[in-house]
Design brief:
The complex is a heterotrimer. Chain A is mainly alpha-helical. Helices cover 74% and strands 1% of the residues of chain A. Chain A has helices at 2-32, 39-55, 60-83, 91-113, 136-158, 160-170, 172-177, 182-208, 215-229, 234-255, 261-275, and strands at 128-129, 134-135. Chain A starts with a helix and ends in a 14-residue tail after the last helix. By secondary structure, chain B is mostly helical. Chain B has one domain (5-338). The two termini of chain B are 22 Å apart. Chain C has a domain at 1-79 and 155-161 and 188-234: Rossmann fold, CATH 3.40.50. In chain C, 38% of the residues lie in helices and 28% in strands. Chain C is built from 10 helices and 10 strands. In chain C, the strands form 2 sheets. Chain C has a 6-stranded mixed beta sheet, sandwiched between helices. A 4-stranded antiparallel beta sheet of chain C has the order 2-1-4-5, covered by helices on one side. In chain C, strand 4 (55-62) and strand 5 form a beta hairpin. The longest helix of chain C is centred in the C-terminal third of the chain and has 18 residues, at 167-184. The chains are: A mainly alpha, B mainly alpha, C alpha/beta. At the A-C interface, helix 6 and helix 7 of A face helix 2 and helix 3 of C.
Chain lengths: 289, 352, 234
């Protein structure tokens, strides 16, 4: 029982990271109906920025905030420069552009920082808590994720810009008639997604170690989490990410050799989706005919 | 989306241009085939090998086009079906000593069945959800191949003996395999064109464009969607089998997610709802990474990615999907002029 | 009184095809002007051209400023509030959030305006925490109008406010529109199928057929025109 709970808690901690990246995916999907395959590599790149800042001697949390700011601006720039030209193109063209972006980030990171695996500092000490049920690191990751979620919730609920972003995602034509610059809202959405991804990258890097391919697996789990929750539902993304984190851990511990962990986890998720094709929190989408 | 039927023929430039155009099409098609047959004797062995790979990728992309372009379902898992075809061929040749040509129908059958089985749950999914299900295929395949070592040789993979040409033909293996693949490619394009211009093809397109209307018209949506899936994976599986034969080696690492993404990229670059586009897609997948390597040693994949971006900006419907409608529009504009010169069309004919 | 909005030889396009073939329309400041015509005549397109939603040609002047080359959101910020066909409410947001969005261009505290809107439409005050999608058709139309007014616009553009509503509710809504026009001192440009009702409330009217203005004048002139009576007032 003790071991089981231990696995659940550590699953929550990885799940929190998946949840963050899943949230980033959902944020972009809601406004553009596009799955951003480059989200993971963008997060990886942000993590390298944080690593550079920390290596240069900046205190961890200052480097953290600076990275979020840089990522936010970078995300906005990517939307305006790279994504905008395919805004009205066929979906597949936009998908290919995000795949291209994935390759560019991965390759450029390898070029600048090399493919050697780097240590990444953790802001949390790895001390056991609650009779070794969890560690301070797990708790730290979960706490950071929670703070981020609360801030995002407040932003979308109480600020005019947050409200305008929701309106622009829901009904862009009407939003324009209200005087809302929809293009700018999209860019802010990409900026936020990039910043959220940066948090996920910085939180996961001490565990996975930093290298240009670090986020590949994380993106898969996050994508699965986002879909499990319902690709258009932010709450769903968080819950879905957590479920995937816990499932992955339990499958790896109890069910099967770890080389098939990913496969089994994905199959389990697909089984759930066969029962609920729009995800746990999704509602059936109205089809345009 | 471009009108699918107008761009479906491999070399078609426009429909209904009278019998002379049909003749021209046959001549053009014949010329391309003659050229393709002569080409290997003008090129080095390695260049022939590269061209063979281009054609193999073209068959795989063609399979994906049937699903994505004509039936509107996006798959991130065709690398997995490619792997299934490759391993079918490899295991049959390696363990059972079955001749290489006999593995092609086996791979076709197995991948068709796999595709139909996969298409069944996929019926419930759309857009990103289907992407996840197929993505699972792409991710799971290498893991499964490593896991069932007894059959697949695990991490080391399987080494195969490359087949040589029949004794009466005095050509080397690589050139012989080039012709084998060329024949399969031409047959695949013919078959794809027949399917897509026929009853099933019209049903695929109807389901893509007007799913509810298609169902209301009595098209059995589920059957045709699964059929599209199976047909699509059949093509890709045969391409996989050819790849195993031509390369003479299979290993799990060659069939990762990246391969699936490459097929999708190839499909988009060539033009998803086209048959001829598959060749351009295949060439893109094979040549551009090498070219990128020449341009930048340090970050070749960044160059490859940038090439993808630029192509999509310039031609969001892919090369064939953009060029062919343009050419046929131009032809239509020239059409009345030609008629006027022929002396049978002085009447007001300026439709534009 | 000077017109607040003028259209001079305005053409509008969907893709390559021209839908409006050069129309002239003027909306008097503080007045109500109605565009009449059958389905597909180009009335909605005219409204969309004003708000920069479709590509158009010709001259559109609003309060002395040309609208050409401005984006839809810039035009809204100039003071044109457009209630589109199908109402365009944000169904996933609450009534109150919809109203807050209406005041987006004003960047101030929207509370005062909101109180006034709840005065016109008490039912919205009752439902202010509900999702707009849960409202009835009539309530959604009220919300759409209220949201547009939150902008404190100089011109209110209404596209078929009666669409899909029961006759009783239509009358209620038109009574409120008339009251709002007087109290908020806002000019109104209206597209309406219900010609009898619209002519009764408007000062000026234009009849559009297949992309041309085929008749115009005061509402009374058009209402008395025998041919229009036969075709549109039945």
């Amino acid at each position: 029982m003790h071991e089981f709970l231990q696995q659940v808690f550590s699953g929550f901690s990885t799940g929190a990271i998946y949840a963050s990246l899943a949230l980033a995916l959902v944020m972009i999907y809601r406004s553009t109906e596009l799955v951003n395959f480059a989200q993971g590599e963008m997060a990886m790149f942000s993590t390298y920025i944080a690593w550079t800042l920390v290596s240069a001697g900046l205190p961890f949390w200052l480097a953290f905030l600076a990275t979020l700011t840089i990522s936010f601006i970078g995300g906005m720039a990517i939307e305006r420069i790279v994504i905008r030209p395919v805004e009205n193109a066929p979906v597949l063209a936009a998908v290919v552009v995000t795949i291209g972006l994935l390759l560019i980030f991965n390759s450029v990171a390898g070029w600048i920082y090399s493919y050697t695996v780097q240590d990444f500092p953790s802001p949390f000490h790895d001390r056991p808590l609650l009779g070794a049920l969890m560690t301070t690191r797990d708790l730290g990751v979960i706490a950071v994720t929670l703070v981020m979620l609360v801030l995002l919730f407040c932003f979308f609920r109480f600020t005019t810009t947050g409200l305008a972003m929701r309106a622009a995602a829901q009904n862009p034509a009407s939003a324009r008639l209200c005087g809302i610059p929809v293009g700018r809202m999209l860019a802010i959405g990409w900026g936020l997604a990039a910043a959220i991804g940066a948090i996920a990258g910085i939180m996961v890097a001490p565990v996975l170690f930093l290298d240009p391919n670090m986020m590949g697996g994380v993106l898969l789990y996050a994508f699965a989490g986002a879909l499990l929750g319902g690709i258009a539902s932010p709450i769903g993304a968080v819950v879905g990410g957590l479920i995937v984190g816990v499932t992955e851990n339990l499958v790896g511990t109890y069910l099967i050799a770890s080389q098939l962990k990913l496969t089994v986890a994905l199959i389990l998720i697909i089984i759930v989706l066969v029962v609920r094709p729009n995800g746990l929190f999704g509602t059936a989408t109205v089809r345009r005919v | 989306m471009e009108d699918a039927s107008s761009t479906s023929g491999g070399f078609a430039l426009g429909r209904d241009r009278g019998p002379s155009l049909a003749v021209w099409r046959w001549l053009a098609g014949g010329a391309v085939i003659v050229l393709a047959a002569a080409l290997p004797f003008a090129l080095s062995k390695y260049e022939v090998f590269e061209l063979t790979l281009v054609m193999i990728y073209a068959i795989a992309v063609l399979g994906l086009n049937i699903l994505t372009g004509y039936n509107g379902q996006i798959s991130l898992g065709h690398g997995g079906f490619f792997a299934a075809g490759a391993y079918t061929a490899a295991i049959l040749m390696h363990r059972y000593g079955i001749p290489y040509w006999a593995t092609l129908p086996a791979a076709a059958l197995i991948c068709f069945v796999l595709g139909v089985l996969f298409g069944l749950p996929a019926l419930r999914f759309e857009g990103p959800y289907l992407a996840l299900v197929t993505l699972a295929m792409a991710v799971a395949m290498p893991q499964l191949l490593k896991y069932f070592e007894g059959w697949t040789g695990g991490q080391q993979g399987l080494n195969l003996t490359k087949p040589s040409a029949p004794a009466f033909l005095a050509i080397d293996r690589d050139r012989w395999l080039y012709f084998v693949v060329l024949v399969v490619l031409v047959a695949a394009m013919r078959i794809a064109a027949n399917i897509l211009n026929g009853r099933s093809g019209r049903a695929f397109v109807a389901i893509r464009d007007h799913p509810i209307a298609a169902a209301a018209m009595g098209i059995h949506t589920a059957r045709y969607k699964t059929l599209a899936f199976g047909t699509s994976t059949l093509f890709t599986g045969v391409a996989g089998a050819l790849a195993a034969i031509v390369i003479g080696y299979v290993a799990p690492e060659s069939f990762g997610l990246f391969l699936s993404l490459s097929f999708l990229v190839g499909s988009a670059v060539g033009g998803i709802a086209t048959i001829g586009g598959a060749i351009i897609g295949g060439a893109f997948i094979e040549y551009i990474p090498n070219l990128a390597n020449d341009i930048s040693d340090a970050a070749p994949w960044a160059v490859y990615g940038a090439a993808m971006l630029l192509l999509m900006y310039a031609m969001p419907n892919g090369v064939v999907g953009t060029v062919v409608p343009y050419v046929s529009r131009t032809l239509r504009r020239i059409g009345p002029l030609k008629a006027a010169f022929a002396g049978n069309g002085f009447a007001a004919n300026d439709e534009d | 009184m000077a017109p607040i909005l003028t259209l001079n030889g305005v053409k509008a396009f969907y893709g390559q095809s021209e839908v409006l073939h050069g129309i002239d329309v003027a909306v008097e400041e503080g007045g109500m002007t109605v565009l009449l015509g059958a389905n597909g005549a180009g009335k909605t397109t005219a409204l969309r051209a004003i708000c920069g939603v479709v590509r158009s040609d010709g001259e559109i002047m609003f309060a002395g400023k040309p609208l050409h080359g401005r984006s839809t959101e810039e035009i809204a910020a100039l003071g044109i509030a457009h209630v589109p066909e199908g109402r365009g409410t944000f169904v996933g947001l609450t009534v109150e959030e919809n109203l807050r969005l209406g005041a987006y261009t004003r960047r101030g505290r929207p509370d005062a305006g909101m109180g006034r809107m709840y005065g016109y439409f008490p039912i919205l005050a009752e439902r202010r925490r509900q999702q707009a999608g849960a409202l009835s058709g009539g309530e959604q139309q009220m919300l759409a109008i209220a949201r547009a007014l939150m902008m404190a616009p100089r011109l209110l553009v209404l596209d078929e406010p009666s669409f899909g509503l029961a006759p009783r509710i239509v009358e209620d809504i038109f009574v409120i529109i008339e009251r709002i026009r007087r109290e908020e001192r806002v000019s109104v440009l209206l597209v309406e199928q219900n010609a009898a009702l619209a002519l009764e409330l408007s000062d000026h009217a234009y009849l559009i057929e297949t992309g041309y203005v085929v008749a115009s004048g005061t509402a009374k002139q058009l209402a008395d025109d025998p041919q229009i009576r036969r075709s549109y007032l039945g």
